Amino acid sequence: MESIHISTAPLAELVRTMQYLDHSGLTTGSAGNASCRADPGGFWITPSAVPPGALTTASIVAMPLGSPAPVSTPRPSSEWRMHHDIYRERPKIGAIVHTHSTYATALACRRKSIPAFHYMVAVAGGNSIRCAAYATFGTQELSDYAMSALSGREACLLANHGVLALGITPMGAAKLALEVEELAKQYCIALQQGDPAILDEEQMRDVLKKFESYGQRIE
Known about the structure:
Blueprint: H1 9-23, E1 33-38, E2 42-45, E3 61-64, H2 80-89, E4 95-99, H3 102-109, E5 131-132, H4 140-149, E6 155-158, E7 162-167, H5 170-192, H6 201-211
Parallel strand pairs: 5-6
Antiparallel strand pairs: 1-2, 1-4, 2-3, 4-7, 6-7
Helix pairs in contact: 1-5, 2-4, 3-5
């Protein structure tokens, strides 16, 4: 019988993406995770508690959609539920990263969304980057809150936790996470001087219209 060949290309990209997050300072130690959609009907996700430098393609865990997580070795990231639910509910999403980047997490610990203080907030798909309500990590409750915060958006903060960023590819999601961190840094600095001016809805509608033809957008 002919053996079934499974391409290692998406697994290698997940490894590279986690190394990029590490080198960019968006993750430290074994914090954070990344995943990408797999055909048919599943996704690949990084394992629990493995730092980027120790990741290999053999470390990446295959997960199904629409059924309970299997008992597997290595164990998938404890945040697999968020990834699972996003892929199930948003079929055009191809990849997800989760980070504990410094400035975005600082805002999340104050449970503050990022408003339209800068037009580039539109990079996440709307006129704000919302902060999801708090729930214990790895729980269905947290996934539900994240799904709500991501409605009409491609990134959100997670209260007292970190960031979720979505993309077409793992590296695209990682670059969005980097953009969210830069916006969070700028917003934190602006808050030190007082309340920054916020772009109004009409101004952000104009920006979002321009963004429809800017870069690789998720429809």
